[in-house]
Write a structure and sequence with these properties.
alpha/beta; eight-stranded mixed β-sheet; five-stranded mixed β-sheet; globular; binds fe (ii) ion
Length: 586
């Protein structure tokens, strides 16, 4: 039985397909149309999912859409009366949702009535919760979803047992931890969709100097809940102005903070102005208050559910800094956050919701790796290399045995070279985890600046991530609980910080990926070889891209390699070196 999950007309549009409960494929549309956070109809992602399953659209049994227009209708109507422009926008969006069968028919040249699949509309946060719990290693767990807004709610919690979830409560618009983080990020001059993670990186450079004020911006009451101090915001008056629907554009957001926030905290930062102490402290306070609220909610959730394990989903679950402290700040002993915890993950959440909660099928699947996107054969990679400018521009091209590739690449990394590492199937979720990665030497204090100057062009306050052999985690980090999806930041042991300065953030933490041999034998092999050479079982890992979605196809990897000042490219069993003359002095 095939279930297709589709997250359409919403940020991070995506598709996923499961066959008899087993995940076959999951991918974001941005990897195909090359528009970051693309929000349209994910026809290429759906096509890839169907091809991976070896079926046509006509053979799909169920189609799961993570959006329920009837959810919280009362609240929607209440605000529709007060915000007519927002209401008009919503009506248009709902029109698009109602048209999903037609959009499918158009994309796949099939009459909508020939699609025999049953359609299911799954409420946004229930899909988020399902995306975490039903693929987790836990038979029972507490569940929390927190994001900006979906189906007019921002937060939902409950518990899961076997193949069932029980919803315990929810928080509706306009109260939202995601919108809190977005609004304050905007106030701090970070206005683009998806900029929140930059502010999370900046937070480590400041002090939480404004906590008293921020406790008015988000208020708690000791339970699993919170309220926004609405005077600081304007989204409840204007509606969250989002432009979601154009597949060819990254979504845009209107300003959500009010003049009152600027009155209380000082003028908002112009995005072009320098980042000063007040902004660093603002970011630190934003993060500190988020953590206070989140931990208070999780403690209350633990008291209600008495579970050992917690599954988190929604955009707030990407806050790896907060996630890394959950074991210290709450009684939870186990955590699971699936790699696409944000809205892309809704595609698998909706599909698994149908499989378990609606059809009552037993649990049988565990997501133990993140490699659910497109993969390419050695022949395809070789053809891409031959069709490119690599040879004519004098690059050295070697084809080696798998073991030799890891050895050669590890040597290059240890010699300070920047290596593009392209292997296997693309990662699901926003981070590269060793299949579409740029890998560098973590021992060099200047490697962060070199990477930024030569390839990534990111703000200096954003950290790079360490990938560590799973079996060596406790040697480098103060916690060793597995973190295969880079969803937690752990403190690097003080005595190890000098050994791996490049991916150690200014506050002494690292947003780590624990790499097991089972989950990714090739990447594990690379780190193992690097450890054999240097005695350090860690490499620096950043996504294979340059201000664009992570590369997906070999051709994109080659283009990115040629365009940037990367030294070496590994594609499957091929290793490509830039000609000496092309190297740029550091
Ligand atoms: Fe969401």
């Amino acid at each position: 039985m095939y279930i297709l999950g589709i997250n359409a007309y919403h940020g991070n549009s995506s598709a996923a397909i499961i066959a008899d409960g087993r995940l076959i494929a999951a991918v974001e549309e941005e990897r195909f149309n090359r528009v970051k956070y693309a929000a349209g109809f994910p026809s290429a992602a759906i096509r890839y999912c169907l091809d991976s399953a070896g079926i046509t659209l006509a053979e799909v049994d169920h189609i799961a859409i993570p959006r329920n227009p009837w959810a919280r209708l009362g609240t929607k109507l209440f605000y529709a009366v007060r915000m007519p422009s927002f209401a008009a926008e919503r009506v248009k969006v709902m029109g698009r949702f109602a048209g999903i069968p037609e959009a499918l028919g158009q994309s796949f040249e099939i009459a909508p009535e020939k699609i025999r699949a049953k359609y299911h509309r799954i409420e946004h946060h229930q899909a988020h919760l399902a995306s975490a719990f039903f693929v987790s290693p836990f038979d029972q767990a507490a569940l929390l979803s927190a994001d900006g807004l979906g189906d007019f709610a921002s937060t939902m919690w409950g518990s899961g047992q076997g193949n069932r979830m029980h919803i315990d409560g929810a928080i509706a618009f306009p109260h939202s931890l995601g919108l809190y983080y977005t609004a304050v990020s905007q106030y701090l001059g970070f206005r683009k969709f998806g900029d929140e993670y930059k502010v999370m990186g900046l937070a480590a450079y400041g002090e939480p100097a404004y906590l008293d004020e921020f406790r008015h911006i988000v208020r708690t009451n000791g339970g699993v809940g919170f309220r926004l101090g609405l005077r600081y915001f304007k989204h409840h008056r204007t509606g969250p102005e989002m432009t979601w629907r154009d597949a060819n554009k990254t979504p845009e957001l209107g300003a959500m903070f009010s003049n009152y926030m600027a009155e209380r905290l000082g003028p908002a930062r112009d995005p072009a102005a320098p980042v000063e102490k007040a902004h660093r402290d603002g970011a630190a306070t934003l993060q500190a208050r988020l953590e206070e609220v989140l931990f208070e909610m999780l403690r209350a959730l633990h008291a209600r559910t008495r579970q050992k394990a917690v599954c988190l989903a929604g955009g707030v679950a990407f806050n790896c800094v907060a996630n890394g402290k959950i074991f210290d700040q709450t009684p939870f002993e186990q955590i699971f956050v699936q790699p696409a915890a944000g809205d892309a993950g809704l595609a698998i959440g909706a599909a698994y919701f149908v499989h378990h909660q609606i059809l009552g099928q037993p649990r049988s699947f565990l997501m133990d790796h993140a490699y659910w996107g497109p993969g390419y054969s050695q022949e395809q990679m070789r053809a891409a290399v031959l069709a490119s400018r690599l040879q004519s521009e004098g690059h050295e091209i070697l084809e080696l045995h798998e073991k030799e590739i890891a050895k050669e690449a590890a040597k290059e990394i240890a010699a300070g070279k920047i290596v593009g590492w392209f292997q296997g199937r693309a990662e699901w979720g926003p981070c590269a985890r060793g299949n579409r990665s740029i890998v560098a030497d973590p021992r060099r204090p200047d490697m962060k600046d070199i990477l930024n100057a030569r390839i990534k062009h990111r703000e200096m306050f954003r950290p790079f991530a360490p990938s560590v052999l799973a079996e060596s985690t406790g040697e480098y980090f103060e916690k060793s609980y597995p973190c295969p999806f880079m969803t937690q930041a752990y403190t690097v042991r003080p005595e190890k910080r000098k050994e791996i300065p490049a991916p150690t953030h200014v506050d002494g933490t690292g947003r780590l990926q624990t790499v097991s041999r089972e989950a990714n034998p090739r990447y594990w092999g690379l780190i193992r070889e690097f450890a054999n050479l240097t005695g350090v079982a860690v490499v620096l890992n950043t996504s294979f891209n340059d201000n664009e979605p992570i590369v997906c196809r070999p051709e994109e990897a080659i283009e990115c390699f040629l365009r940037t000042k990367m030294d070496v490219l590994v594609l499957g069993d091929m290793l490509v070196r830039k000609p000496e003359s092309a190297e740029v002095p550091r």
